[in-house]
Design a protein that fits this description.
Helices cover 15% and strands 18% of the residues. By secondary structure, it is α+β, with helices and mostly antiparallel strands. It has one domain. The mean pLDDT is 86. Bound molecules: zinc ion.
Amino acid sequence: MSEKRWWICTVCRYMLHEVEAPETCPACRGKCAFIDATCYTPECGGTAYPDPSIVSRSIGASATWKLT
Ligand SMILES: [Zn+2]
């Protein structure tokens, strides 16, 4: 299985569409944790699209994420 997923950097919220999350964020160049923001339901279009609820939640939660 090598299906592309949507990933969001938990530090800078950079989004990318790749099979695996990168070890180093291309945007903030940190060793960031990426969360899977892929849509897994038909409501947001399936895995070709990011899930808007995860995207908005990740932005709202970013203030509590640890910045290292
Ligand atoms: Zn980043």
